[in-house]
From TrEMBL, chains A, B:
<feature type="region of interest" description="Disordered">
    <location>
        <begin position="1"/>
        <end position="22"/>
    </location>
</feature>
<keyword id="KW-0676">Redox-active center</keyword>
<dbReference type="Pfam" id="PF02852">
    <property type="entry name" value="Pyr_redox_dim"/>
</dbReference>
<dbReference type="InterPro" id="IPR036188">
    <property type="entry name" value="FAD/NAD-bd_sf"/>
</dbReference>
<dbReference type="InterPro" id="IPR050260">
    <property type="entry name" value="FAD-bd_OxRdtase"/>
</dbReference>
<keyword id="KW-0285">Flavoprotein</keyword>
<dbReference type="Pfam" id="PF07992">
    <property type="entry name" value="Pyr_redox_2"/>
</dbReference>
<dbReference type="InterPro" id="IPR023753">
    <property type="entry name" value="FAD/NAD-binding_dom"/>
</dbReference>
<dbReference type="InterPro" id="IPR016156">
    <property type="entry name" value="FAD/NAD-linked_Rdtase_dimer_sf"/>
</dbReference>
<dbReference type="InterPro" id="IPR004099">
    <property type="entry name" value="Pyr_nucl-diS_OxRdtase_dimer"/>
</dbReference>
<feature type="domain" description="Pyridine nucleotide-disulphide oxidoreductase dimerisation">
    <location>
        <begin position="370"/>
        <end position="471"/>
    </location>
</feature>
<keyword id="KW-0560">Oxidoreductase</keyword>
<keyword id="KW-0274">FAD</keyword>
<comment type="similarity">
    <text>Belongs to the class-III pyridine nucleotide-disulfide oxidoreductase family.</text>
</comment>
<protein>
    <submittedName>
        <fullName>FAD-dependent oxidoreductase</fullName>
    </submittedName>
</protein>
<feature type="domain" description="FAD/NAD(P)-binding">
    <location>
        <begin position="27"/>
        <end position="345"/>
    </location>
</feature>
């Protein structure tokens, strides 16, 4: 860990290196032009004029502020245009007074001299001094060293270029797509490797584009962000939708034909023909630059920050988004939880603080929602294994309840699993698997976890009730009521 | 207010009056067989056997545990059978060991001698002693002394008999109903008096049954449970659906024809032809018996209880549901808020306490959700007028946000108005008017109000985010973010 820099906004050495003019303004340099970085830049600009703060953002790709979370829906055809996924283009940012430089990669951080080194598309390298540095380098998709992983027909879904390539391949292969080849014969086949959020969202996308879909994961059940018993419900629902699941088996090879294109995905004891393979294996923090600069990293490789989103021990170096670890409010531990919602908050906080306001990030409670076709999946708080790891003793209950009054049309069953701390009855987490409207009910859980409520507190919450929206006790309350009884019984 | 009774379960005088046998068990007597009363009975029976506690419930009607909230959907045709609205019939309760006596009215309470007087369908009157008394007499629909209010064709929607009568009339008049008369000509006309929850839900029901609907209310905007500016949004949306709204005008007369049947509804300066009139004017607590017995009532006429749902100053007399006033957690004041969700909780608490467990009702935060056709309406916390009445100074903001990521199909706009306390930033309330999925988002508001969160706390909540479910900041957080800025600006 590097030494703490002194406070204050004195102009650091090297500030004007590589630039032709000396500006009177302080300078904020942002590394990475997606959610966290550009939120920080936009928030600082909202609070300070260009005369007060110069803002330069470096992005190695072409796009800024895009929704990677939207890629599955773009591939599925729910979203038509690439631009729909771009919340704000580089040009739009520039019009708001931000100096955005795309195709410009930051290749080194030099905290001691408060400068970063960049390389632009033409290969020109430069140093740029900063008063405040924002590291928002995001995450790298996991690509295990499986034979064939770089074959033609294997697609990632990390950025818009990935999404575009996959979308083109899908349109070529899918019977309903333009120029589709499979209309007369059997449907094209997709194998999705990884059964987490990205994997199941991509499975939905491929199903909806007319593919026969196989999902392969080494875990015993899909969605390891759920307890296995809840993962079982997800697998069963996916199977009922016609998605084949191959669980508990690691991919050993992506088989290719003589033309070099993908033919099948193999595990130790099975072979799954594929016209197309999608990698949905999760990500790890992209922090090689930070590591090289001696900045503090956590176990996952994510940057460690303080509550103000300043890199620990480094004043005026800030970090947010998918490249940091966040503190879990229930355990006090930090974890890598790459989500756009955290990234946006981090950026807002960083921008406010750089502009002289005061804002802090209170940590997360581990909320996530997803869907595969009509199945909605949500979690917040701790899984059983996470609670145990944190030294917490708990009871669990699982209930089946309905989304609306039982007699109201469209009432759908949902399963709610809840963890409550032994003795205290404090809520520790909940998982929901159901149909419309199931997933967003987890927001009550997230809010109650943040407030440190007990399950009895939850039973007594004054939640919205009317027959089209809920039974008299919301499903979350039905689970809480049973959990409260379990806490009493457990002693 | 009567003197406090002593604690303990000593058998009171008169316990066996009117009964043939002396039982060894304590006796719980319930007055009123709907949500609060039967929840109390069922909960007590869950915890104590018939040998430990005898439970008698008196209900003057035919039904127990029915959903009055479901009547609009029964009339609309969403629910087919009357029985669908009955959660548990008298016979089902009896099979669970409850002595349910329908068509038996309680005509007097005698707290001094711990007994109640009943009159059955045959006119026979009896005294029944109790160890614990549960008053769950519900509420009475308001029926202002308007000329013609008792005419043929004027319907209330308080109980299942009302619902059945209205449903029959609708089927007779509506073009699509069996034996409908209006198929060839113009649609039948319904006037709904009262533009609160019941009124708008009935307006939807009548629209969906093919009626031309006029909604009349003396208030300037519908839904006085919202601030007027949010009520305006509701009125505009209803008008766009073809529902005529006549606001700011009191009904002066229900005009009848020579046959005695309804012809029109009149205000001081307008006349609205009607084949059918629905009264949706709200309710007042049904507490004449309690008042005659000297039990304490609040301003609305609702019974006042302690946290354990015991009538204030009266041990072993409990009250819950639509006949009590509930404490508002944000103001400390008691109000009459008749809702099935409160009634169920009250019953559960009362049953637990009578059985020797310990449970309390923490009060409400004023949550309510409703819909009219596809418009969803929700509130929690305080309106502007309520905050002012409570001595609270506040800022308000209103935002328009979308239900899903903007690029995701089905993203619908919603308006969120939020009140935050001046200086502290404490959340005081929110109102939501939008389309699917808008209303249940208020549950986060309800939970945050219960926890005493500030609007900044809400901005930082770890709510569920994925494009099909939410923008990166949930609409409630978009409002909270603006509210936080308004609090800072207000100083």
């Amino acid at each position: 860990m590097g030494p703490a820099r002194t406070a204050g906004h004195a102009r650091p050495i090297g500030h004007t290196e590589g630039r032709g003019a000396v500006s009177a303004a302080r300078r904020m340099v942002v590394v990475g032009g997606d959610a966290a970085g550009m939120s920080a830049a936009a928030q600082a600009r909202r609070l300070l004029s260009a005369d007060e703060l110069e803002i330069i953002a470096f992005e190695r790709g072409d796009d800024t502020s895009y929704s990677a979370c939207g890629i599955p829906y773009w591939v599925a055809g729910d979203v038509e245009e690439r631009d729909d996924l771009v919340a704000r283009s580089p040009e739009e940012h520039r019009r708001r007074g931000l100096d955005v430089r795309t195709r410009t990669e930051v290749i080194a951080l030099d905290p001691d001299r408060s400068r970063v080194r960049t390389r632009d598309a033409g290969g020109t390298e430069e140093w740029h001094g900063y008063d405040d540095l924002v590291i928002a380098t995001g995450a790298t998709p996991l690509r295990p060293p499986i034979p064939g992983i770089d074959a033609e027909g294997v697609y990632g879904v990390q950025d818009l270029a990935d999404g575009e390539a996959l979308r083109k391949a899908v349109s070529r292969l899918a019977p309903d797509g333009p120029g589709g080849e499979g209309g007369a014969g059997s449907p094209p086949r997709a194998v999705v490797i990884g059964a987490g959020y990205i994997g199941i969202e991509m499975a939905e996308a491929m199903v909806r584009r007319g593919f026969r879909v196989t999902l392969v994961d080494r875990a015993p059940e899909p969605m390891t962000t759920l307890d296995p018993d809840m993962g079982t419900l997800v697998r069963e629902a996916m199977n009922a939708m016609g998605i084949e699941t191959v669980m508990g088996r690691a991919v050993t090879e992506i088989e290719t034909g003589e033309d070099g294109a993908v033919r099948a995905v193999r595990t130790a004891d099975s072979r799954h023909p594929a016209d197309l393979v999608v990698l949905g294996l999760g990500t790890s923090p992209r922090t090689a630059l930070a590591e090289a600069a001696g900045l503090p990293l956590g176990e996952s490789g994510g940057l460690l920050t303080d509550r103000a989103m300043q890199v620990r021990g480094h004043r005026h170096i800030w970090a947010g988004g998918d490249c940091v670890e966040v503190e879990h409010r229930l355990t006090g531990m930090t974890r890598h939880i790459p989500l756009g919602t955290h990234a946006n908050k981090h950026g807002q906080i960083i921008g406010s603080n750089i502009a002289g306001e005061y804002a802090t990030f209170p940590g997360v409670v581990g909320t996530a929602v997803s869907k595969v076709c009509e199945l909605e999946i949500a979690r917040s708080g701790l899984l059983e294994a996470e609670a145990t790891e944190a030294g917490l003793q708990y009871v669990t209950v699982t209930v089946e309840a309905t989304s609306r009054a039982g007699y109201y049309p469209g009432a759908r069953p949902m399963h709610v699993k809840m963890l409550a701390e032994r003795r205290t009855g404090r809520l520790l987490g909940a998982q929901i698997v159901g149909r419309e409207v199931a997933a967003k009910r987890v927001d009550v859980v997230a809010t109650a976890l943040t407030a440190g409520m007990t399950v009895t507190d939850i039973v007594m919450l004054d939640l919205g009730y009317a027959p089209p929206f809920s039974p008299t006790y919301d499903p979350v309350q039905v689970a809480a009521r049973k959990a409260a009884a379990a806490v009493r019984a457990a002693g």
